[in-house]
C-alpha cells in the first residue's frame, strides 16, 4: 500500500467510523546519536535504514473504538492513584511490566493468609489447599491460552527462563554443527543470547530474518533462509521495541514444511492479543505473568506434548523425579519433569487471578481499547514538530507500543523530564540492541498502553513532550 496523501478526518474520527485516514506528519530525527539525513526516503539509503516518513497512511483498522469502562477498571488498580513528582501517575511503561488489580493482590495475600504450605508432598490440610490452588491455577492459565491439556503448560519464572530452558533442554540435545537456528533482527535479547550460547556450544549457525523500513519482518527472504539445515525457528509474536505484530502462524507453517521446530516468544502477545496458542501451529510458546497483570517471577512454557517429550530434563532436584538411586534417577511425568524444586505457588495463584480478571474484562475489548489509544497517541504525537515514530504504519500490524525519538533530545533525557511530570515511559535500547543498530539509532523512547490507560493520559504525555521540547530550546 502506497502512502495516502488525501485530506481526511483525524485518525481517531476515522477509527470510530471504521474509515481510512492519512494524517501522520512524522518528521526527521536529529538525534545526538544519528546525524540527520535530510530528505531521506524509505529504502533508498541502505543501512542504517530509513524508517522516516512525512505522511503515514493507516488502513485496515482491525479494532472498533474502545468499549471499556476505564474509570471502573482504574478503581481496581490501587497504584494508579499514586502521585509521582506531586502529579497523578501516568503509567505508560506497560511493555516492561504491568500494574496489578486488587483481584491479583488479594489472591496472593489470601494464599499466604489461608493456604500457604508446600505442594504435592504434605498430607495435611494446608498442603492440600495449596496443591488445589496450584493445580487449579495451571488449569486456568492453560485454558486462558486455549490449551486443553494443562500438562502441556510448564511453569517458569518468565519468558527469559522459558527460552533458556528450551535452548538448553532442546538445543543442546538436538543441535549439531552445521544446523541452523533462524531468528529475526527484531528479537529481544532473551531470544538471542540463549541461542548464541547454544550455537557456540554445538557449532550450529544463527541466521536472521531482516526487517523492512517500517520494522516489519521481510518475509521475502524466507525461501532462502528456511532450508533442510534449519532445525529451529524462534520469533517474537510482538516486538517489544516497535510493537510490530509478526505473522508467526505463517512462519510456523513454513518452518514445519522444512521440519524445523518453531518457538514463539509470546511475552508481548500474551497480555495484549487474544491468543489461542495451539492454533498458532508452533511447537512452543513462552510468556511472562508480570506483563499481563500477574506477579513477577512466574510465567509459562507451553509445548505440544510430543515437543515437550523431546526435551531433556533441565534442572534436577525435588519434584521432577520418579525414583532416585545414588547413581541415577528416573523422571516424573510432564509437566513436573521440567519443574524442579518448590515452585512459585503464590505466583501461579496470582497469575490465575490475572487471567480470570483479563477474561472478565474481555480480551477483544482490551485489544480494541489499546488500538484506539494507539491511534489517538499517534495522531496527537504527530502534532509535535521533530517527532519521529517508528514501526508499522498500519495499526492492524502493531500493538499498543509507540517507539519514538524527539528532535535530538536523548531518550533518557526525555524520560527524565516526563517523569518529573508524572509520566512513566521507558527509554533505551529495550533489550534489542541489534534492532537499534539495524535502525541506525542508539535508543528510543517508548510509551506503551494497557487496559487502564486513557486518552487523557495520552494528552498528558503529549503536553510533557511539548514541555521537553521547550526546555531543550526548540
Ligand atoms: N521477549 C520480549 C518480546 C519481551 O518484551 C520481554 C520483556 N521485555 C522478554 C522477552 C523477556 O521477558 P522477561 O524479562 O519477563 O523474562
Summarize the structure.
With 474 residues, the protein is an alpha/beta fold. The chain has helices at 11-17, 70-75, 102-115, 125-144, 159-174, 193-202, 222-225, 248-257, 305-309, 345-361, 363-381, 411-420, 433-439, 455-471; strands spanning 21-24, 56-58, 83-84, 87-88, 90-91, 153-156, 180-184, 205-209, 230-236, 261-265, 284-288, 299-303, 321-324, 329-331, 387-390, 401-406, 423-424, 426-428, 444-448.
Question: Can you describe this structure?
Answer:
With 474 residues, the protein is α/β, with parallel strands linked by helices. It has 2 domains: 4-92 and 363-471, Aspartate Aminotransferase, domain 1 (Alpha-Beta Complex), CATH 3.90.1150; 103-360, Aspartate Aminotransferase, domain 2, CATH 3.40.640. It has 14 helices and 19 strands. It has helices at residues 11-17, 70-75, 102-115, 125-144, 159-174, 193-202, 222-225, 248-257, 305-309, 345-361, 363-381, 411-420, 433-439, 455-471; strands at 21-24, 56-58, 83-84, 87-88, 90-91, 153-156, 180-184, 205-209, 230-236, 261-265, 284-288, 299-303, 321-324, 329-331, 387-390, 401-406, 423-424, 426-428, 444-448. The strands form 6 sheets. The chain has a 7-stranded mixed beta sheet with strand order 6-12-11-10-9-7-8, with helices on both faces. The protein has a 4-stranded antiparallel beta sheet with strand order 15-16-19-18, covered by helices on one side. A two-stranded antiparallel sheet has the order 1-2. Helix 6 links the parallel strand 7 and strand 8. Helix 3 packs antiparallel against helix 10 (345-361) and helix 4 (125-144) crosses helix 10 (345-361). The radius of gyration is 23 Å and the shape is globular. The model is unreliable at 1-63 (pLDDT under 50). 4'-deoxy-4'-aminopyridoxal-5'-phosphate binds next to helix 5.
Amino acid at each position: 500500500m502506497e502512502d495516502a496523501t488525501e485530506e481526511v478526518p483525524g485518525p481517531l474520527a476515522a477509527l470510530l467510523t471504521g474509515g481510512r485516514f492519512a494524517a501522520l506528519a512524522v518528521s526527521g530525527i536529529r538525534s545526538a546519536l544519528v546525524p540527520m539525513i535530510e530528505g531521506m526516503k524509505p529504502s533508498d539509503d541502505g543501512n542504517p535504514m530509513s524508517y522516516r516518513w512525512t505522511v503515514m497512511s493507516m488502513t485496515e483498522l482491525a479494532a472498533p473504538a474502545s468499549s471499556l469502562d476505564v474509570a471502573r477498571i482504574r478503581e481496581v488498580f490501587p497504584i494508579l492513584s499514586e502521585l509521582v513528582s506531586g502529579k497523578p501517575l501516568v503509567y505508560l511503561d506497560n511493555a516492561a511490566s504491568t500494574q496489578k488489580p486488587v483481584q491479583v493482590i488479594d489472591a496472593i495475600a489470601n494464599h499466604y493468609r489461608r493456604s500457604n504450605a508446600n505442594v504435592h508432598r504434605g498430607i495435611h490440610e494446608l498442603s492440600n489447599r495449596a496443591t488445589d490452588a496450584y493445580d487449579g491455577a495451571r488449569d486456568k492459565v492453560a485454558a486462558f491460552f486455549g490449551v486443553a491439556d494443562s500438562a502441556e503448560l510448564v511453569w517458569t519464572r518468565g519468558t527469559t527462563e522459558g527460552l533458556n530452558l528450551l535452548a538448553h533442554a532442546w538445543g543442546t540435545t538436538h543441535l549439531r554443527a552445521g544446523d541452523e537456528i533462524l531468528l529475526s533482527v527484531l528479537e529481544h535479547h532473551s531470544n538471542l543470547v540463549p541461542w548464541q550460547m547454544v550455537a557456540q556450544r554445538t557449532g550450529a549457525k544463527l541466521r536472521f530474518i531482516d526487517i523492512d523500513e517500517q520494522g516489519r519482518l521481510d518475509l521475502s527472504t524466507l525461501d532462502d533462509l528456511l532450508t533442510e539445515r534449519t532445525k529451529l525457528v524462534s520469533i517474537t509474536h510482538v516486538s517489544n521495541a516497535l510493537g510490530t505484530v509478526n505473522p508467526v502462524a505463517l512462519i510456523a507453517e513454513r518452518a514445519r514444511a522444512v521440519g524445523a521446530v518453531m518457538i514463539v516468544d509470546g511475552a508481548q502477545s500474551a497480555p495484549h492479543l487474544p491468543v489461542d496458542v495451539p492454533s498458532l501451529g508452533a511447537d512452543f510458546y513462552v510468556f511472562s505473568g508480570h506483563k499481563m497483570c500477574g506477579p513477577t517471577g512466574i510465567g509459562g512454557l507451553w509445548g505440544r506434548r510430543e515437543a515437550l517429550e523431546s526435551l531433556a530434563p533441565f534442572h534436577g532436584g525435588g519434584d521432577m523425579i520418579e525414583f532416585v538411586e545414588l547413581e541415577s534417577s528416573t523422571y516424573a511425568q510432564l509437566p513436573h519433569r521440567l519443574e524442579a524444586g518448590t515452585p512459585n505457588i503464590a505466583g501461579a495463584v496470582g497469575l490465575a487471578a490475572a487471567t480470570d480478571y483479563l477474561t472478565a474484562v474481555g480480551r477483544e475489548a482490551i485489544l480494541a481499547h489499546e488500538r484506539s489509544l494507539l491511534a489517538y497517541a499517534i495522531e496527537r504525537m504527530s502534532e509535535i514538530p521533530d517527532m519521529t515514530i517508528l514501526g508499522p504504519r498500519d495499526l492492524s500490524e502493531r500493538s499498543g507500543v509507540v517507539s519514538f525519538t524527539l528532535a535530538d533530545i536523548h531518550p533518557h533525557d526525555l524520560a527524565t523530564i516526563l517523569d518529573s511530570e508524572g509520566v512513566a515511559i521507558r527509554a533505551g535500547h529495550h533489550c534489542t540492541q541489534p534492532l537499534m543498530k539495524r535502525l541506525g539509532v542508539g535508543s528510543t523512547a517508548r510509551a506503551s498502553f494497557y487496559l487502564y490507560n486513557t486518552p487523557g493520559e495520552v494528552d498528558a504525555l503529549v503536553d510533557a513532550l511539548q514541555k521537553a521540547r521547550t526546555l531543550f530550546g526548540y
